[in-house]
């Protein structure tokens, strides 16, 4: 509750230094104190996730604690065995099934947070194993489940994108003898095209599902508009590796135009989605 209140105080009418900043400092102290004095719980794990997602703005990267809070959330979730995902079942009592689904959702958010931060900050992921079959879990627990949550759809869609991005990075960064890890024996263009095709398949599967829930749930409407941003950002990351390699060689020829063209298209989609779709959603 301390963390939720502190984050929400940012939108109060008072100046930030009067309410939001002191509240966030109190929340951060409470988070640090809970490590040594409070018990482990799913709620505490959720608090660390919120601090990782909605951290206090900082001026320098060295002051940012989002990566550390996400690590705390993942460690606590693992200690609580949230990574052991039980199959959904309608035979259990409602209270038990809801609690088990909530535990799985927390682990799903931890996985998405870990992989997105790894992509954003260029750091290795903390969770080594991928979330097992997000599409199958949604079909069992979300789409056909008795106590589903529409938000599960967006989380599962994003998880599949993160699984694909991890596979792409493992495919091209597998040379242990290289300082960067990049395997230069891999045909980078062929690999990028292959995974870009898989990304398009994910878009074709998930986007209609997200659009189908848009009218009934505002959260899903936001997720549906956010998904093109996520896929475009992933596409930009994939093609940027080839563009960087061509730039390092110093002789960019006609064959390298694909890297610039695809990066430009993905970056344009990101900007358009932010300024057109997501901005309108916030205004609504």
UniProtKB/TrEMBL annotation:
It holds the Pfam family Fungal_trans. It comes from the Eukaryota. One of its GO terms (cellular component) is nucleus. Residues 66-144 form the Xylanolytic transcriptional activator regulatory domain. It is found in: Nucleus. Keywords: DNA-binding, Nucleus, Transcription, Transcription regulation. GO terms for molecular function: DNA-binding transcription factor activity, RNA polymerase II-specific; transcription cis-regulatory region binding; zinc ion binding. GO terms for biological process: DNA-templated transcription. This is Xylanolytic transcriptional activator regulatory domain-containing protein. The lineage of its organism: Eukaryota, Fungi, Dikarya, Basidiomycota, Agaricomycotina.
């Amino acid at each position: 509750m301390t963390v939720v209140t502190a984050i929400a105080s940012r939108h109060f009418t008072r100046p930030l230094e009067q309410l939001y900043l002191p509240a966030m400092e109190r929340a951060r102290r409470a988070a640090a104190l809970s490590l040594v004095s409070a018990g482990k719980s799913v709620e505490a794990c959720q608090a660390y996730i919120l601090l990782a997602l909605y951290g206090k703005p900082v001026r320098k990267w060295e002051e940012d604690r989002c990566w550390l809070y996400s690590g705390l959330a993942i460690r606590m979730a693992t200690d609580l065995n949230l990574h052991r995902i039980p199959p959904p079942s309608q035979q259990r009592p409602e209270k038990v099934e809801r609690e088990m689904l909530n535990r799985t959702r927390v682990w799903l958010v931890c996985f998405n947070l870990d992989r997105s931060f790894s992509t954003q900050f260029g750091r290795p992921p903390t969770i080594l194993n991928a979330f097992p079959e997000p599409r199958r879990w949604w079909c069992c627990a979300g789409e056909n489940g008795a106590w589903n949550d529409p938000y599960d759809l967006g989380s599962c869609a994003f998880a599949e994108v993160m699984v694909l991005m991890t596979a792409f990075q493992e495919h091209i960064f597998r040379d242990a003898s290289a300082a960067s890890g990049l395997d230069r024996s891999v045909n980078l263009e062929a690999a990028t095209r292959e995974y870009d095709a898989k990304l398009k398949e994910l878009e074709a599967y998930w986007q209609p599902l997200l659009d189908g829930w848009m009218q009934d749930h505002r959260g899903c409407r936001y997720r549906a508009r956010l998904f093109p941003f996520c896929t475009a950002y992933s596409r930009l990351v994939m093609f940027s590796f080839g563009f960087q390699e061509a730039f390092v060689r110093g002789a960019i020829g006609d064959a390298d135009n694909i890297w610039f063209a695809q990066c430009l298209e993905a970056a344009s989609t990101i900007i358009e989605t932010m300024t057109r779709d997501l901005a309108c959603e916030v205004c609504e």
